[in-house]
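User: Structure please.
Assistant: Input sequence and predicted structure:
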Amino acid sequence: MLDIIATNTGIIVSVKVQASSGKDRIVGNLGGRLKLAVSAAPEKGKANKAIVELLAETFHINSSSIHIISGKTSRDKKIMIEGVTPESINTLLNFNS
């Protein structure tokens, strides 16, 4: 199960990012963190933009509802996703076990 912090407006989730991957995808649960792979290179914010777009598409929300709150230059990031609940994220990702 993902380690998710519920807030008044949404959730905060920890992610581990593999940039310059073959394609954009959610790899799975890595020790409570959401592991993501994006094809964009980690330069000039390209990988961060790809992360936001991948999550917005996956969770069916606007990219403006997703904010990288820490780790903008690191593979380990904390991301705020507004307008969702921990239950909806776990159900959508099928990480209930």
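The first strand starts at residue 4 and ends at 6.
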